[in-house]
TrEMBL record:
InterPro entries: P-loop_NTPase (IPR027417), SH3-like_dom_sf (IPR036028), SH3_domain (IPR001452). SUPFAM superfamilies: P-loop containing nucleoside triphosphate hydrolases (SSF52540), SH3-domain (SSF50044). PANTHER family: VOLTAGE-DEPENDENT CALCIUM CHANNEL BETA SUBUNIT (PTHR11824). Residues 57-126 form the SH3 domain. This is SH3 domain-containing protein. Keywords: SH3 domain.
Amino acid sequence: MHSLFREQLQSFLYAYKEPMKERGVPLIFDASKEHQYRKEFFKEDAWEKLEIAKKMKVGFAVKTNTDYDGALDRESPCREKTISFKKNQFLHIHARYSVDWWIGRHVEKKAKMGFIPTAKRIGKLEKCLDEEGTRLGQSSIWECSPPFTVVPSTRPIIFVGPAFHGSQITQLMHTALRSELTKRMGERVRKFKSDIGRKWMGRIDYEESERELKTITALCEDLSIILLEAPHVNTPLDLTGIHLAPIFVQIRVSNRSILMRLMNKTGIQNKKTELCGVDLLNSLPRDLFDVIIEEKGLPEATKRMCSFLEDYWTATHPTYEDI
C-alpha cells in the first residue's frame, strides 16, 4: 500500500516538473511584442482622448516663453500629433492628458488639435540638457524661466494713438471706432473700461492691476473679444510685467497736414501737447504693435479692423472639422 502511494506521488512530482504544454500559453516572454502592444494600446487611447478634447471648451490659454520641437520628443503619446511652438506664440489648452501632456492647439486659423508638453515635461527636457552639458564639461549659471505664462483666453484689444489718451482727438477716434466695431461685430465683441496700468507715485500700481487682470480674464472665459478702454495705457511699454498679452492697435497719423486739419475740425486748442504725444508714439518700433492703422478715414479704419477681428474670431472659435 505504501509503495503504491509512493509511486503515485513520484509520478505526480515528475508530471509537475514537466513544462506546460497547454495550447496558447507562451513559454518565453517576448519583450518586443509586449512593447509594441503597449505602444499601440496607448496610441489608440491618445487618439480617443484627442477626439473627446475637440468637443471640450477652452480651459485656459498660455503664451510660450521658449521654443519646442515636437518632432524630437519620443515620449509623446502620439508623435504625429505633437505640437511644436516658438517663443511668444499663444496656445489654447482644452484638456489634461497626463502630468506631462496637455491637449490643445495654436490660436491660429485652421490650427490642428494635438499634444502639448506641460511645464513639468519641459522641465524634464531642460534637466536632461543640463545633465548632458555637465557630462560634457559645460555648466550653466542661468536659471530656466517658466516655459509658459497663463494669459486671458482671448487677447483684449487696446487702441493707442494717434496721441496720448488724455488728448481730445484720441478720445474721439477711439470712441468712434469702438462704436462702429460693436455695430459690425454684434454680440461677438464686448466693451470694457479698465484701470489696468494705473500709476501711483510714478510707478505702476501692480496690486490694482492684478485685480483688473482677474476681472478681464474672467470676461474672456467665454471667448468674447474684449474692446478694452485703458486710459492709463499710452504705449505697450506701460503694461510691462503684467500678464495681459493684449492685441495693441496703433492709430497712426504721420501726415502733419492731415493731423492739423483734424485738430482744427474738432476744435482742439492745445495743439503743441497733442503733437508731442503723436511724435512720441510714431517714434516707437513698429513691432511693438500687432496692428497699425494708417487709413485716412473712419470707414477705412473700421473695415481694416473688422477684417482683423473676423480672422481672430475664426482662430479662437474653430469648428470640429477644422481641428
